[in-house]
Design a protein that fits this description.
Blueprint: H1 2-34, E1 46-48, E2 54-57, H2 76-86, H3 98-111, H4 121-129, H5 136-152, H6 155-165, H7 175-183, H8 192-200, H9 214-230, H10 236-244, H11 259-268, E3 274-276, H12 281-298, E4 305-312, E5 318-322, H13 350-359, E6 368-371, E7 390-393, H14 394-399, H15 403-413, H16 415-424, H17 450-461, E8 465-466, E9 481-482, H18 486-497, E10 518-523, E11 529-535, E12 539-546, H19 558-574, E13 588-594, E14 608-614, E15 626-631, E16 638-639, E17 650-655, H20 659-668, E18 692-695, E19 701-705, E20 712-717, E21 724-729, E22 732-738, E23 743-745, E24 750-758, E25 763-773
Parallel strand pairs: 1-3, 19-25
Antiparallel strand pairs: 1-2, 4-5, 4-12, 6-7, 8-9, 10-11, 11-12, 13-14, 15-16, 15-17, 18-20, 20-23, 21-22, 21-24, 24-25
Length: 774
Amino acid sequence: MKFYFSQFTKKNRLTITLFTFGTAIATFFVLNILFPLNIHINYSQEITASDGTVLHAFLSADDKWRLNTELNEITPSLKKALIFKEDKYFYYHPGINPIAIIRALIENLISGKKQSGASTITMQVTRMLEPKERTYTNKFIEIFRAFQLELYYSKNEILQLYVNLIPYGSNIEGVKSAAVIFFQHTPDYLSLAQTIILTIIPNRPSSLVLGTDNDKIITERNKFLMKLEASNIFPKQDIEDALLEPLDAKRHPVPHFAPHISRRLVSSYPAQSTIHSCIDRMKQEKVENLAFNYIRRIHHMNITNCAALVINNHNHSVEAYVGSSDFFNQADNGQVDGVRAIRSPGSTLKPYLYSLAFEKGLITPKATITDVPVNFNGYMPRNFDEQFHGTVTAEFALANSLNVPAVKLLNEFGVSSFIHDLEKAGFRNFLNHEDQFGLSAILGGCGVTLEELTTLYSCFASEGLLLKPQWVKEHILSDTVRILTPGAVYMITEILTRHMRPDLPNNYESSTHLPRIAWKTGTSYGRRDAWSIGYNMDYTIGVWVGNFNGTGVPELTGADLATPLLFDIFNGIDYNAKNDWWVMPPGVDFRLVCSETGLVPNDFCINQVMDYYIQGISSMKTCNHLKEVFVSPDERISYCRNCLPQAGYKTKFFADLPATLVSFYESENIPYGRIPPHNPDCNHLLIDNPPVITSPSDGTEYVLEKNENQQLMLSCNADNEVQKVYWYINNQFYKSAAAGDKIFFTPESGSVKVSCTDDKGRNSDVNIRISLLQ
């Protein structure tokens, strides 16, 4: 009977135990559903450099410095020290240590006061997440929350939460915050002695203040180091070195490097505590210093700011980002981000237009373009130096940044097509506004950003492949888009690499520090913006110089004030650049062309030069710069086939010049091979190539002051053989003049018809409207 009762008692106890245990588990899961664990920590947002160092940090929403220590920043030394000090059985218990709790309860009951808390690291995390008064009821809540933490998080994740929440006095929380503020390093760069200091301070953050209580901290540090040595936690030599390490710590300002890109990234990733940027810290500091010192040198010229962007061409990461020369200079609007500010690009879009023209076969580098006065329905572009050069090659026009050839090329290419290509290249200001831009867009009559321009030139460095800049390391490279062919880009690069050009800064001609780069400058209308964008195989760098308030400065040009900073940056970050350069891609080759036109030579083309061309794309048109003319033996009269005598004439080649070039030569008194006057006895009416009226512009309304006696100019472009033209106003003869002369008339209000007839009987008309203001 006694044996049976004993067996019954054992079974009963087991049943009761299992029932109690099951009830506890069931109760826990019910409470877990009713009171779910909700962890939300207000971290300070931080921007790290590519090497993991902190570039910039911002206060948390509750005004704390609470930087997120990532798992890879919790070193083995820190982990060992914390677990030894706070919770030796951390990796073995389920969130609470029952033995420690029972021991603490007994000690507290015997003494009648709280002497031991028995809190595990997990329980401390719950208390820091939900601070409450230290009561037994709240202790049970801590235990419940500790079980929840262990249910949902791994041990390393719980340790990470602990590391991020422990206090260090004032508004500093977390190991990383303390490491950065007091030691100016992230936790994974701390010595053992520094790590131990950050281990012992959280228990006494008000009495162990770094910078104030350093001697006391050293004493406490060494005591704990001796305990670690006695327990063989660290090698003896490491302990001895740590004991001898001095302490010269104090509170430092939180890093505030790269302020513009830091604010940009925080705005782009508001929910992300740690943003791993691609910024190279050394390059960023170098470019910031160069920009600051450069503006300080030229500030006396009333030029107050600049911006710079550095893109690594191999992975398209942004390694330096300077939005202004001094972010904290409010007087000069230093907080404006010049990388994203919309400004006039000046001539910096010209290489893109020329490369598009190359790949469409419109021109080759040695193709000629007339640089003479031209009128596009009232728009009359002029070159930066207010000069015209007659006939120039495409490569000369681009290298010298001539405006008139660029406008003529854009007119041939098509404004709408060019705007569409700019949109493909990522220029956002053109979207849905195509109708607002005209021929002036190629000279800066549009809005772009330094970011967009630098991205475009990085496409040149990538042989025509466009890839968006990479701001953060977590981003996967986006798909590349080919916007240019390698052949067209290669020809552009060859032109932009040449040093014999007017936009080479003064004193750089013989400089041994001239970087090997391809670059282009730009100056906006009114000299408000100076640009210089350059690239080699490793980097693409964009520079803007000017005033954020839009004030123009007479001395402000891309060549004189932006390019020196560009060269300084290249020399500063890539001084020992490799001599690697692009090789001629397949499909591009050399050929002989006529130097007069850049076209395939004809039999009469005696002056020939080598030129690049794209096989199957570039024009194969034969040169026709000369035409055969029948003239009298004394060359005083020319004949057409209708009046050609049976004898007494000869043939002679004359330059087949366009009418615009003839007018330019005439106006500038430049000698050229004029075709003799046509046979006066010829009665045949020539109908081809009538004079082109360049002023006034057809269909234009002119508003004039009535009492100012204002006049309009009459001018035209006529063929080489034209000697004289005749002007008519409303079908009434007004005046005769030499073909290249400019004359003036005083118009009346209303519709006016202007006619021009050359000495061959060919005629042109334009219709304008005159409004006279009282």
